[in-house]
Amino acid sequence: MDIALTIFLSCLLVAACITDLREQRIPNLLTYPAMAIALVAHAFLPGGQGVVFALAGLGVGGGLMLVPFLFGVMGAGDVKLMAAAGAVLGASAALSAFVLTTLLGGLYALFVLCLHRRIFAARLRAYKDAAVVAAATGSLNMPEPDPAQRLPRLCYGLAIAAGCFAHMLLAANDKSLI
């Protein structure tokens, strides 16, 4: 990958992490221009791979993240960030970055659960109690969590950045996940 595109993607990922941590969102003002820049860069830069390469990466990156979005697991900003990263990286690299993002995102989620294990344990007890009542009555009523028992939201932009950086590190050392 061209050094200019590597620097561009790195800046995009850092900016996304900062806004995700501060605001728990990744703004369109960051993702849409990044997609456009990646398409133009691949079309015209000497090291660019072409618009089809960028479009395929955009589709793979965004498409893979669309499934968790449709299940309500993550926000639209996460989908668009991965699509923008895919436009820079290309389809094959976007798939690799997605796999790494998923693995690192799982570790991140476990870390957050460990930090908030009392809240997590209380939520599990409430769900267990609801399951026991459901087994006895045949009616499942999931309890609304007490605001004090809410687990923090994950800033998945961090996992996306970690997955993309891990992919770039592997690629720089001529190693590939896929």
From TrEMBL:
Residues 7-110 form the Prepilin type IV endopeptidase peptidase domain. Keywords: Membrane, Transmembrane, Transmembrane helix. One of its GO terms (molecular function) is aspartic-type endopeptidase activity. The chain crosses the membrane at residues 29-45, 52-76, 82-115, 154-172. GO terms for biological process: signal peptide processing. Pfam families: Peptidase_A24. Belongs to the peptidase A24 family. This is Peptidase A24A prepilin type IV.
